[in-house]
Write a structure and sequence with these properties.
Blueprint: H1 17-54, H2 65-103
């Protein structure tokens, strides 16, 4: 039997400083584009629901993209607070679990019997 060959990692091309800066700016632009699209969508959805409850079509108001973005701030801040809170809670729980698991010398005890 022969040993399986280990695959050597492919050499990464060295990017110049300008290419790396361009790459980082394009990544930032992609994130900004997605966030802006979500803000416009949430604003449009809020305006649509609000005007539906009032009984007329929101197209009559002729709202701009900026108005949609400004209308979306309330919903996005609530969503951001919930996601951020869950992220912080998850990080805290993960650190506590790993600290507890690494501090014990014996096997971990899941549920002690009384």
């Amino acid at each position: 039997m022969t040993q399986p060959e280990t695959a050597e990692p492919l050499p990464q091309p060295h990017l110049s400083a300008a290419a790396e800066l361009t790459r980082q700016l394009l990544l930032l632009l992609a994130n900004v584009t997605v966030i802006t699209a979500l803000l416009v969508y949430f604003g449009w959805w809020r305006a649509e629901e609000h005007n539906r409850l009032l009984g007329f079509d929101q197209a009559l108001l002729g709202m701009s993209t900026q108005e949609y973005v400004l209308r979306s701030i309330d919903q996005v801040l609530v969503l951001l607070a919930i996601v951020g809170g869950l992220g912080l809670l998850g990080t805290w729980a993960w650190q506590r679990l790993t600290r507890t698991a690494t501090s014990r010398t014996g096997p971990p005890v899941c549920c002690p019997l009384y």
